[in-house]
Amino acid sequence: xxxxxxxxxxxxxxxxxxxxxxxxxxxxxxxxxxxxxxxxxxxxxxxxxxxxxxxxxxxxxxxxxxxxxxxxxxxxxxxxxxxxxxxxxxxxxxxxxxxxxxxxxxxxxxxxxxxxxxxxxxxxxxxxxxxxxxxxxxxxxxxxxxxxxxxxxxxxxxxxxxxxxxx
Length: 167
Hints:
nine-stranded mixed β-sheet; elongated
C-alpha cells in the first residue's frame, strides 16, 4: 500500500516538472542537475471506513462479478525531503525554489490523496550528499481500494483510489 502512495506522489511531482524519486540514499551525482525530492512514508494510521470497510461488489467491463471491494482510509505523514547541490546561495535558495514547485504540484494529486497540511523546515547542510537538505512533510489522507478474488475471499491487491493499475 505504501509503495503505491510513494509511487503516485513521485509520479505526480515528476509530471509537474519536479525531479522526484521514491528512494534514498542520494549521492552528489544525483544532485548535479539540481534539486531532487525524496518521497517516503514517515508514519501511517489506518482508520475504519465503517460498515467493515465493505464498498460493494466488483464487476468487470462485461458486467461479470469479480469479487468484493473494500476500502481503507490512511492518515499519513509523507516526507517530501528536498536535496539540493552545495553552495550557500545555490543550495538553500534552490531548496526554497523547489518547495514552491512541490507546493504547486500537490494541487494535482491523484483523487485518492487529499492534502491536509504541508510543512517546510529550514534548509541545512547535508553530510551524506554534501549538499543541502530541506525537510518537507505532507500530512494527507489516502483512500485505498482492495478487491477480493471472488473465490477464496483473499485480497488480490490494494490500489490507491483514482490511480489506474497497469497489469
